[in-house]
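re: ur question from the group chat, yeah i did fold both. here u go
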Amino acid sequence: MAALTPGAVRKQIAAGTPDAIYLLTGEDDVEKSALAAEFAELVDEGLRAFNVDRIHAGDLTTGDKLADGVASLIAATRTLPMMSPRRVVTVLQAENLLLPKRESEAATRALDALESLFEDPDPQTTLVLVAGSVDKRSRMFKLLQKRATIVECGAIEDRADAERWVRTRVAAGGAEIDAPAARLLVDRAGLDVRRLRSEVERLLLYALGQKRMTVDDARAVAGPASLVDDWAMTNAIEARQPAEALRQLALMLDAGAPPEKILGQLGWLVRAKFPQLKPAGVRPAIDAVFRTDQDLKRSAGEPRILLERLVVELCAAR
């Protein structure tokens, strides 16, 4: 089956249209745990005690224990939902199911039974396997590639996903974060998971003991802004998005980009793109770039203001 991002899976959960089997993998344990917990939303809150099961596979270290664990899993997935259209069964540390540590006749029989379950899942049950490191060469993983939806946890898709990521990490630290504070951290760190993790860790340390993190807390610890895309400013001008173009310009300047380099990008945009995008705007755009170049060389104004004026003019010419 398909490989989906965590964001795409959340859309399935919200729409109430989940697949039969999911394998959540990746190094981001917090993301895996948060996503696995969200599957419970497929069942009305008052009915979750009857229709949501969690199985821990961490202690399935022998063939006999594995056989018992697989039997319990099959029984849970084959049980009919009670007053609900769907059941959810989550298996934590599922790598112990998929690749037993010890081989034995009991383990082999258990794996055969598990394969039969994967080949013929119950249509009224969603099975969620939460695994750490999985051998992608193994027979069981190759079967899941055919029968399950594989979800790699750890990648961030867009700004909204990054802000949700920040909120999840802060919640895992026992606190909450205001929406403007989460946005500020994303503005500064971009979509880089490593830098976002560092920003959140610093915030939790700085506000140790607080139950809610504010934008002032985030501003106190956030590092310098990070660019998501070196060409986001010129792309925004092409798309006639002056507000986004100015935001990206501010990110570039805050990150230490020389004004001359930014002016060079804008000059390239005018020379390479404007003749096709807006032929009538080429001459005014060239004049604006030339004037800004002269003003920068003569120190005729603050570079940030001169470049902001140029960006606005180019958006208008575009």
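okk and heres the other one u asked abt
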Amino acid sequence: MANRQSADLVLYRVHPNGGLVFADATRARRIARIHKAITKSSTWGAFLRAMPRDEYSRLVRELFDDNEEPRPRSTDDFNGEQIPAYCDGDYPAWLQQEMDSLLPQDILRDFAIRADTSFNGCYWHIDPMHLKAIKQRLAKAGFVAKSGARLTFY
């Protein structure tokens, strides 16, 4: 577990695979913003305005500049398929895979199983029936756990 200050805010939600996802609130909000930008933008200009600025710049460099391709105009059509890793489930980050860097090891040991996928690697699967007990343990460890169900992070 990384160095933390007391009372860190952790958001949680249920992933479409049925498991709980816990994430640092700042990271969860950033990932949710990226998901929303990709799914709701219809032009590259809308995508630019919706994305975190540094992440948009990184993507444009990687997708266009590094390939010596012209950058899209703000009025050009946009869809998520133009972000190659998005359709593969590899972008943005899958936070269920990262829970071992956030949650105390005893919570993972007692409530999580290490599951594997065919294409996207391993992740931590926690049954939602353990939510109450996990929230109690997190509180004892100095975390404040709140629902992030309205955000899209996985």
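fwiw on the second one: Helices lie at 25-40, 44-50, 53-63, 84-87, 105-111, 131-140. Residues 85 and 120 are 11 Å apart (CA to CA). idk if thats what u expected
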